[in-house]
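Anyone up for a design puzzle?
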């Protein structure tokens, strides 16, 4: 009798639970008879050993430092270092900078412009702004050189390739299936 069988017998004798152990053995024998094979999963999945943070001084070459009193690659890292590593490894740097520009828009362009023009989207190097009126849309187009220079200071060269300034949302004046051709409403919303 092997060690496992001895341990089962000792447990069954001590706790009087022969029936569950016999049912488990019977289920295992049936599964094995049907071709099911019991595979033990690896206890630890090997991950890429990517070091975050500073280099670790190893006292003896080829020796893992472990978690002793010396610094180790397994030591906890500050959240700032971990977040910087995640942002760089996933390629989120540009999106994060543009998101920070949208959040800091009043500090970048000033309160007067921020009250009348907001960041709507940023995709493929095209920054889309939405003005509150057509006059502010025209003003922002005139200030696009200043805005481009200011964004280049904040984000870096070449991140924003084009600035598109849109006017306010205009509602449609066409009701029904038929409409009369003509100029229609002009600068009604600004």
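Challenge accepted. My sequence:
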């Amino acid at each position: 009798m092997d060690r496992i069988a001895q341990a089962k017998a000792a447990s069954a004798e001590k706790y009087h639970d022969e029936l569950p152990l016999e049912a488990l053995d019977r289920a295992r024998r049936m599964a094995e008879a049907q071709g099911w094979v019991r595979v033990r999963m690896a206890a630890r999945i090997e991950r890429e050993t990517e070091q975050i943070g500073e280099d670790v001084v190893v006292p003896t070459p080829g020796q893992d430092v472990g978690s002793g009193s010396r610094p180790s690659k397994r030591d906890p890292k500050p959240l700032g270092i971990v977040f910087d590593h995640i942002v760089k490894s996933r390629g989120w740097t540009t999106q994060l900078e543009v998101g920070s520009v949208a959040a800091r828009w009043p500090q970048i362009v000033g309160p007067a412009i921020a009250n009348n023009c907001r960041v709507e989207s940023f995709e493929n190097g095209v920054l889309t702004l939405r003005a509150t009126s057509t006059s502010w849309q025209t003003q922002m187009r005139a200030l696009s050189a200043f805005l481009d220079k200011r964004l280049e200071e904040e984000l870096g060269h070449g991140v924003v390739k084009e600035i598109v300034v849109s006017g306010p949302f205009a509602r449609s004046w066409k009701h029904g299936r038929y409409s009369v051709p003509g100029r229609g409403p002009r600068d009604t919303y600004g």
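A detail worth pointing out: The radius of gyration is 34 Å.
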